[in-house]
Amino acid sequence: MTAPVIGVDIGGTKTAAALVDPDGRVRARREVPTPARAGPEAVLDAAAGLAAELFGAARAGPVGVGTAGTVDPATGTIRYATDSLPGWAGTPVAGALAARLGRQVRVTNDVSAAALGESWAGAGRGRRHVLLVAVGTGLGGAVVRDGRVETGARGAAGQLGHLPAPGAHRLRCGCGRYGHLEAVASGTGLSAAYAVATGAGVTGRTVAERANAGDRIAGQVVDRAGAALGAALAGLVALLDPEAVLITGGAAAVLLPAASAAYRAELPEGWAGVPLLPAALGADAVLVGAARLATRTTDDGGTGP
C-alpha cells in the first residue's frame, strides 16, 4: 500500500467512507445516514457518492468495503443479511460499486474488516494471528491470520455468536434459536436477561448504565454475560491459537471486566500468555480494515473490474 486508498463502511444506520494513508491513519472522512428503507440501489449510490467525494480530494487507489451481512469471498456478493438492510441479500456489492466508481472494489463483512484494521494499525499491530470479537446489538467475530481474513467456505468464519452458552436456554438469539452466546453476551442479550429478571423492557445500553450506577440486578446480568463471553473466548483460544484476542463494540467496555476474569480463569495453561485486549480504533476500525483489504490481491473479497 503506497498511495491512499478508500475504505467504506456500510451499516444499517450509517454509511461512512475514509481516505486512509499507507500507515493506516485516516486522512479524511465522510458519513451519511444509510438509506436502508429505500433499497439496495440507494445504499450503493450513497456509498459511491461518499467515495467519489474523497476521490475528488486526493488521488487514491482502489476501494475496500466492510458491510453488514455475510459476503461471498469470491464475488463480493451478499449471501445473507438481516432486516437492518432490507433486500441486501443477493446484492453484488463489489461489482455494483466498481461499475459506479470505475475502480477495483473488494468487499468483506464489517466485523472482518474491523479485525483487519485492528491487526494492521490498532491493538493487534505487530501480531500475525488475531481473534476479534465485536459485542454490539449482536455478537460477531473474525479471525485474521498473516494479515488476511479467514473467510471459511461461505464467508462466515469466526461467527462465535452461535456457540452454545450455559444459562442462555431461555433467551432467544438473533438467528431465532435459543441457547446461543449472542443471546447472553450482546446488547440484545443484556436487554432480554434484564427483562426476564425484572419484567422491565429497557435497552442493553440502559442495562449497562444501570449496572455502572450500582443496580444489583443489572450488575448480575452484566457479570453473567461477561463470564459467558470470557469462558467462550478461552475455549476459542485453545481451538484457534491466536496471538491475541481483541474485543470491540458498544457493549465491550461494560462486559470486559467480567469477561477478563472468566477468560483468565478458563484459559488453558498452554495459552496463558494470550492477552484479551480492548480494541483501539473505535469507529474507524471498519474503514481502516476495508482500506487494507483494498490492497489485497487474493480472494479476501470480491473484486470489480
Structure report:
The chain is α/β, with parallel strands linked by helices and 305 residues long. The chain folds into 2 domains: 5-115 and 284-294, 2-Layer Sandwich (Nucleotidyltransferase, domain 5), CATH 3.30.420; 123-280, 2-Layer Sandwich (Nucleotidyltransferase, domain 5), CATH 3.30.420. It has helices at 40-57, 93-101, 110-121, 187-198, 204-212, 216-240, 252-266, 285-294, and strands spanning 5-10, 14-20, 26-33, 63-67, 70-71, 78-80, 105-109, 129-135, 139-145, 148-149, 244-248, 276-278. The protein has a 5-stranded mixed beta sheet with strand order 3-2-1-4-7. Helix 1 packs across helix 2 (93-101). The two termini are 19 Å apart. The model has no long low-confidence stretch (mean pLDDT 92).
Write the layout of secondary structure elements.
Elements: E1 5-10, E2 14-20, E3 26-33, H1 40-57, E4 63-67, E5 70-71, E6 78-80, H2 93-101, E7 105-109, H3 110-121, E8 129-135, E9 139-145, E10 148-149, H4 187-198, H5 204-212, H6 216-240, E11 244-248, H7 252-266, E12 276-278, H8 285-294
Parallel strand pairs: 1-4, 4-7, 8-11, 11-12
Antiparallel strand pairs: 1-2, 2-3, 5-6, 8-9, 9-10
